[in-house]
Amino acid sequence: MAEQRKEKETDIKEKLLEKHHEAKLVRRIVFIVFIILMLSLTAIVAGGYSFVKNSLQPVDENAEETTVVEIPIGSSVTAIGNILEENGIVHNAKIFRYYVKFKNESGFQAGEYALSPAMTLDDIMEELKQGKIMQEVVFQVTIPEGRQLTEIATILSNRANVNEEEFLETVNDPAFVEKMMARFPVLLTEEILTEDVMYPLEGYLFPATYPFYEENPSIETIVETMLIKTQEVIIQYSAEMEEKEMTIHEVLTMASLIEEEATAQTDRENISSVFYNRLETGMPLQTDPTIAYALGEHLDRTLFVHLEVESPYNTYKYPGLTPGPIANAGETSIIAALRPAETDYFYFLATPDGKVLFNRTLEEHNRDRATHITGSGE
């Protein structure tokens, strides 16, 4: 009996000792695996860091030759990165794209560039932004702020050898508009196709000076160039639009109303505040330029008979914003549309000498009108 108990105890001890050795072996294996994993992870991180660091450096610091690189109109950052990598100007297209995003850069221009493998990514981006291209400018077209689509057609017919009627037919052609919407999906949304919108691209051709590098650029080239500029400008204010819960279409519409009411001496932020104050209280905007737009003609003076025009653009009859922009607004008006002054103004009046008077009440407004416009004030 005693011997059996002793054998049993010996057996238990041996099993415990065996389990102890097994546990010790498992811990050693786990430790070794952990070390291997850590070393592998370190190697991967180090390799990744080395790869990224190398990709951010010039391809060849000692390179003296340059390569002519063509960036097509409307090229995305991804497409530009691929072109640069294919031509040996950058190490890696994806790293270029991430670097551009990290630096928050934009505004790259189309054209032919003489680029070198010795250039840094910052140098390359600066070249592409400034448009230092090899081609010579054949001519330039300046589109002033506040011009409407029909006026832009006239300007282009005079300066860019474009047929005015053909331009208007093209920019209002549903197939062309759809093509531009596919090309600029963020900028041109379904809102421009709303039934009441008079011209889909009204307000989307940014007022600026445009250089052209061929004698007779196509209408599509001209429109794309202008849309690219609009997108470059408006995209800077994406966060503010999101904060105000406004779409690009709404911002450009409000900006166009501000633009058409503004003069060189006008405080756009105060005009913007009047419009927003009216919108918040349900008052009609009652801005005269919308009447002229609805009538399709220039008005030296808006008469009561003009206010009867039946149009969704008539802000005397219909509250809220117009269905779309009534002109192409400049950046200052876009900023004003997003950053109105904080006022309790509900009225403003442009005087003959270019000043703008702001009022809180209709009584004050009528008094200023009598003094500065009708001449019947005391």
Automatic annotation (TrEMBL):
Keyword presence, Thylakoid: no
Encoding gene, per UniProt annotation: mltG
Major localization listed first in the record, in broad terms: membrane
Transmembrane segments: 29-52
PANTHER family: ENDOLYTIC MUREIN TRANSGLYCOSYLASE
One cellular component (GO) term of this entry: plasma membrane
CDD domains tied to this protein: MltG_like (cd08010)
Family statement drawn from the similarity comment of this UniProt entry: Belongs to the transglycosylase MltG family.
Localization annotation: Cell membrane
NCBIfam families reported in the protein's UniProt record: endolytic transglycosylase MltG (TIGR00247)
Keywords: Cell membrane, Cell wall biogenesis/degradation, Lyase, Membrane, Transmembrane, Transmembrane helix
GO terms of molecular function: lytic endotransglycosylase activity
Catalytic activity, as annotated: a peptidoglycan chain = a peptidoglycan chain with N-acetyl-1,6-anhydromuramyl-[peptide] at the reducing end + a peptidoglycan chain with N-acetylglucosamine at the non-reducing end
Keyword Lyase in annotation: yes
Enzyme Commission no: 4.2.2.29
Membrane topology: Single-pass membrane protein
Site annotation Important for catalytic activity: residues: 261
BP GO terms, sorted: cell wall organization; peptidoglycan biosynthetic process
Name of the protein in its database record: Endolytic murein transglycosylase
Organism of provenance: Sutcliffiella cohnii
Domain of life: Bacteria
Uppermost EC category: lyase
Pfam family, one: YceG
Annotated function: Functions as a peptidoglycan terminase that cleaves nascent peptidoglycan strands endolytically to terminate their elongation.
